Amino acid sequence: MAWKIIKTEKDYQKALKRLELIFDATKNSKEGDELELLSLLIDNYELEKTPIDFPDPIEAIKFRMEQLGYKQKDLEDVLGLKSRVSEILNRKRKLTLDMIRKLNVELGIPTEVLVREY
Hints:
Elements: H1 9-22, H2 30-49, H3 57-68, H4 76-79, H5 82-89, H6 97-107, H7 111-114
């Protein structure tokens, strides 16, 4: 079958069913090439229809802290006093521009995430 850009839910479901059938296809075979093409078409459709939104800034900070094994006291150098860190993580104080810059550099959290409302 000749595949084309997926534009409808019906086409999307059809592509998913076919993908399941040829999922274990050998690379560089006819079905392997079809699998690769279908994967790209499905991915493109999903990105268009269900864009991924940025996470909440505070949740992003907490997630990154967990990844790095940080405790609240580890953020004192970045955000200031222990009480300030606590207020930010408990959503009682907003992030300042300076804090956003430091979190971006020190924790590697994108500024696009940190500047969002919460």
